[in-house]
Structures are given as structure tokens and as C-alpha cells.
Description:
- The protein is of the alpha/beta class.
- It has one domain: 3-Layer(aba) Sandwich (Rossmann fold), CATH 3.40.50.720.
- The protein has 10 helices and 7 strands.
- A 7-stranded parallel sheet has the order 3-2-1-4-5-6-7, with helices on both faces.
- β1, α1 (18-28) and β2 form a beta-alpha-beta unit.
- The longest helix has 26 residues, at 112-137.
- The chain is globular and about 45 Å long.
Amino acid sequence: xxxxxxxxxxxMSGGSRGIGLAIALRAARDGANIVMLAKTAxxxxxxxxxxxxxVRAVENAGGQGLAVVxxxxxxxxxxxxxxxxxxxxxxxDIVVNNASxxxxxxxxxxxxxxxxxxxxxxxxxTFLLSKLALPALERSPWxxxxxLSPPLDLRPRWAGAYLAYTMAKYGMSLTTLGLAEExxxxxxxxxxxxxxxxxxxxxxANIHGGDETMRRSRTPEIMADAAYAILTKDPRAFTGNFLIxxxxxxxxxxxxxxxxxxxxxxxPLAEDLFLEPLGSRS
Length: 282
């Protein structure tokens, strides 16, 4: 087990806010190099954070940052991010597939524009960034791909509730499943991470009932700490896993999960999608 990400180079899709930024800052505290591919060069009217601000935060935390303004849906932009990471830092050790689009409307109501957006960012973007990073990853002594996607569950509950979104998120998870097996002999660790509860991000705040959900959420730091625990494991021995944030941090020694509550209190937390309710687990 590596005890540090010092000197490791991470290429991340998104990262200008929320979970991605929290993961970047946790790695930066070790002295990691963070290359962020995102579109947010200018302030968003509803969402805080720009790519430039995120890179400055990474550098203030102790890492080195590199902003690549581009779209994970664009082959040329993704290749430019890969090339920029190799040119600036000499290689790539870790890919974090963080970028994702969300639309929970049922089939009759969702537009094909939204369907295509989720497929292009979530499933295709994850596949593309992972694929184009492979030559650099295979030269790394510590190669990881970490994707923020749920465990695969083919029972009809989730597809029946949010078919378009489920297809897009499970496309990300299928990429983990397939690449873990395909790259096993190459020693690349390929894993997925998903939150047990909703995470207090701007995306949650902007949904209907977002204020109440935010109050019942955990902070992005639980995902950051879980990602850190995964990325410091030996990739040759730790691959093909679908991991839940609270399980990972508990196994890494965190006994009190209340530290991650967005609002201190004893009320029930809001559970995220794609997982069985806590009360149903044996």
C-alpha cells in the first residue's frame, strides 16, 4: 500500500466543484498533480466554481494544477488533456471519471437531447477518457482508473424508475467491469465508487426539494476520503470493485461517520440512488 499520492499525476473529468473538487483537494494535500478537463472557464449562473478557481485551490492545498478547458464529449479535447498531462508532468498515474449529467424524468417526459447528453458525458465520456489514457497508464508504476458510478443491479427497480439515467450510469459501471478484466494482466486497477447517501453539492441544491435534501446529506469529503483510500491501494491487487463510500472510509479507520454530515444532527440521512435501503440489508 502506498501511503501518499505525492508526485502522482491525476487526470480528472470535471472537478470545478463538488465531489470532483473535493477528491482533487484531498490528493493535492499529498502533493499530487491534478489535470482537470472541464468546460467551466467562466462562472455559471447557477453553479459556483470555475476551472481556474479550482486549479488555484489545488495549488493552495499543496499540489500542482493544470486546467484544460474542454468537453469530455469531444475526442480532440480529451486527447488534448491527455497530451497536456504527459507534456507537463511526464505521464499519467490515475484517471478519475467524475463528470456526469443527471436527468431523472421518466421515459415519456425526457427529451432525446437530454438522453444523448447523459449518454455522451456519462457512458461515452468515461469510456473515451479511460481509453485515451491507457498508453500513459500502462507506463505508470501506479495506474488506477476510478469511476464515480454505482454497483450494477439488473433487477427492474432502477431502470423502471429512471430508465435514461440508469442506462447512462450503468454504462459507466460496465466500463469499470470490462476494463478491470481487460487490464488485469497490465496491472491497472479499475474500480467504481458510489455514495451511500446524497452528497451536499450544488447539483443537489438545485433540484426540487433540494434544501431539505442538502440538510440530510453528507459532505463531498466522504467521497474524497474514500477515493484517497482506493487510490493508495496497490492497483495490481485491488481491481474490479464496486465500492460504497461509507464502507471504504470505515474500513480505513474512520469510526465516526457523523463528521461528514452536512448539517449536524440525529435525523435520517437521504439515501442515494441505485442502492438498497439501509433497513433492507442483512
